[in-house]
Specification:
The protein has 203 residues and is of the alpha+beta class. 29% of the residues lie in helices and 34% in strands. The protein has helices at residues 24-27, 33-78, 143-150, and strands at residues 94-104, 109-130, 137-142, 159-160, 167-184, 193-202. It has a six-stranded antiparallel β-sheet with strand order 1-6-2-5-3-4. The longest helix has 46 residues, at 33-78. It is rod-shaped, with a radius of gyration of 57 Å.
């Protein structure tokens, strides 16, 4: 042991310092190896506890993060896939009713049926007549109009060539229903006509 006042090394169990006479019961210090070892051991255990606490907290954080990410993936997997829909541009359909040359006898008529199912159908066409005076009368009628016409009565028309003509064009929009395009040669007494026509529907 050592004197706390003068630092003199003294025998163990001394009450007074042999150097300066100080009372060793109140001033003596005993820096033994055991005390130092106890302090070091205490510090080591504390450091280990702190380190274990840090590792434990870090582990909990990592586990929580992994669980959260896994939950997000599971939720995303259960969600319906959103697909971007692109509305295609509808191309109009064309149907040819007649595209040829055909005879129309004297005092007779020839007709072609236009069965229109779309809300609005664009009807276009062109015709040319040959024979005699090279003329023909062309009309577009609905069902009632065609019935009246075929029985020799006046009929409402959606298109009329304005009497007998050599050539003409048709361009009109019609709603759904049944229509007829009529090539009439009833005025001719003896002469047959040859009509070249092309009539198309676009819807």
């Amino acid at each position: 042991m050592y004197c706390a006042k003068c630092g003199k090394e003294l025998p163990a169990g001394s009450v007074f310092c042999l150097q300066c006479g100080s009372n060793l019961r109140t001033t003596a210090i005993e820096p033994t190896g055991k005390a130092r070892s106890g302090m070091i051991a205490g510090l080591s255990i504390g450091a280990v506890i702190v380190l274990l606490g840090i590792v434990l907290i870090a582990g909990v954080v990592v586990v929580a993060y992994v669980y959260n990410e896994s939950s997000k993936r599971d939720v995303g997997a259960n969600q319906p896939v959103r697909r971007t829909t692109i509305n295609p541009i509808r191309q109009p359909e064309r149907v040819t009713i007649v595209d040829k040359a055909f005879p129309v006898g004297a005092h007779q008529y020839v007709y072609y049926t236009l069965p229109l199912k779309a809300d609005v159908t664009h009807v276009t066409g062109h015709f040319t007549a040959q024979g005699g005076s090279n003329d023909i009368e062309v009309s577009v009628l609905d069902q009632d109009g065609f019935t009246n016409f075929s029985n020799g009565h006046n009929a409402q028309t959606y298109y009329n060539s304005g009497g007998y003509v050599t050539t003409g064009s048709i361009d009109l929009n019609l709603r759904s229903g049944t229509y007829y395009v009529v090539f009439n040669n009833a005025r001719a007494m003896l002469t047959n006509k040859v009509v070249t026509a092309k009539i198309e529907l676009e819807f």
